[in-house]
Amino acid sequence: MALYITDQCINCDVCEPVCPNQAISFGPRIYAIEHGRCTECVGHFDEPQCIEVCPVECILVDADQPETREQLAAKAERLKIEDAA
């Protein structure tokens, strides 16, 4: 599943630099996660790094975007290829 950032975000800037897929960017008011780039760090780390560093615990799993670990791994591989091109 992709992750999302709730309105509790305090714009502390710690999540964006730890994302290995550059899926996090500053939105109109708070940071946002691009679902097409979020792999929950599968292919890079054991746990989602943004969740690990978030001081207010405002990054949650998006149940409306279900993806298996295998789908996340395939997305990670696709992103590596796309980003290398």
Can you give a write-up of this model?
The protein is α+β, with helices and mostly antiparallel strands and 85 residues long. It has one domain: Alpha-Beta Plaits, CATH 3.30.70.20. The strands form 2 sheets. A two-stranded antiparallel ribbon has the order 1-4. A two-stranded antiparallel sheet has the order 2-3. The protein is globular. The model has no long low-confidence stretch (mean pLDDT 95).
Radius of gyration: 12 Å
* Gross geometry: globular
How would you write the strand order of the largest sheet?
A: 1-4
CATH class: Alpha Beta
Characterize the main sheet: 2 strands, antiparallel
Order of helices and strands: EEEHEH
Overall helicity: 10-25%
Q: Total helix count?
A: 2
Low confidence ranges:
none
Q: SS-based structural class? A: alpha+beta
Tally the beta strands.
4
Give the amount of beta strand, in percent: 5-15%
Terminal Cα separation, in Å?
26 Å
Would you give the CATH topology?
Answer: Alpha-Beta Plaits
Mean pLDDT: 95
Counted up, domains total 1
* CATH level-two architecture: 2-Layer Sandwich
